[in-house]
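If you are new to this repository, start here. Below is one unmodified record pulled from the training split, so you can see the exact layout before writing a loader.
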Amino acid sequence: MFTFKNRLHRMILLSAVAALLSAPLISEAQFHKNENAEKDMATVANRGDVRFLPGALKRRLVELARRNHTFLPMQAYAEADDPSQLFQYYLLDTRGFQPNVFTAVFKGVNDMAMRTAANAANGYMTIGSVRLVVEPKKGLPTDPNDIRAFIDVFTDISGLFVINNESGWYEGWMIHDLTVPEVASPRGDGHAQFGKLTASDAQMLAMLGSGNNVPGHTFTIDGNAVHLPREMDHFPDMQTNVVPLQLSMGAYNSMQQSDVHAYWEFNYTTNWIHPTYELPYTGGMPGTFEAGLQYNFLSLIAGPGPGGPQNDKLIYGDTPDRPRDPDLFEATDDAQREFRERFIPSGLANEIYLDVWERLASFEPGVTDIKQRMFDAYKAEVSRVDQNHDFVISALEGDVDSASDGFADNSRLYLPPTVFTRFAVSREINDGILAPRLAPSQRAWVLTGHLVAVDPPVPASEGRDGDDR
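And here is the target side for that same chain:
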């Protein structure tokens, strides 16, 4: 079991949580009010992209319109002849994780300092919403579980202060918690099949803790019941026991003061995860900060990470004549597609995590050091997809229609959006790392929320996008 190191830690944490959860918001009368609140609320409530939304989501968007803002919640336009279809959403706030200096006041730490992130804009708690809609484009699937579907992600946040310095930004993260897969016969080399466990793997997992780790369950590192992030956590000795896989929604900042709106496209060309070997160098894994490992290895030059030799920086780094473009996925000439990708497909990242945490019998049974397992698994799983042996998954090699590892295509390499059951927003700085700041802890989080499925989907757009392509 995780325990608090001392009673003082517990008293400080209880005080911070109580202040965050029970303190009344500052009177709205002390601030400038939105003089057009009623008109703005009616406008949003009656918009065609909002009118048919579930009640909780609609109320959140109307509340964002009531508050002071630079822009109303984003207008969702269709990118097809038929309306976009909302199939899931997240409601965000600053609860559900250990309070930090971005979300709470700590005596002697930041009680005399200007607020820089959340929970003080016009006296309101920082809140937001994230809408995921599938585009019914001609010739493309409309099932969000099909990774060939094209999906739009709309994020609206109120009360997140603009970042002015240090090349900083806010970053949204869709989070999938590693699960325990089904058992299947092993490959010829004894390793588990893609997305599966061997019988020996499953047997070893079932013996951990209270026996939580059986097929179909969310995996926990101690084998006990799931403990998701919560206010009562304490870094580093009392944290969640799940293993999160975090997919970036891109970087953004506030518009004016504390009004945030961001758009992102979810499809197989963007459904990629930071290189997992970065995690020990973020300072968020227990023991890594104390050991001074943060920033010891960066993925600036795409390659195998600590598990292999580094690629030539003149070839795989950024170049003046052809700057690296991770979005350059499609081209009639394959040689013009980006080959220096630092990310890897989300399903491949999940496969690496299975090697590290769950395949205790079929993957390096004699290696117990998590960092070493992470490095070795990254190298091993990337090599199954990498065709030219440079340990980089290029746009061509990661294309959903490319074949690899005996499979006819790469559809297995991508997780659908419906398995990302949590969402978080973090406060990032330019540290050269693609992984979330202080991952996998929540010490740089400013917002979080849980997935709400919408089944059947509902219309969630109005009008046609004028610059659709």
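Two things worth knowing about this chain: Helices lie at 7-22, 37-46, 55-66, 199-206, 313-316, 346-358, 370-385. Confidence is low (pLDDT under 50) at residues 1-29.
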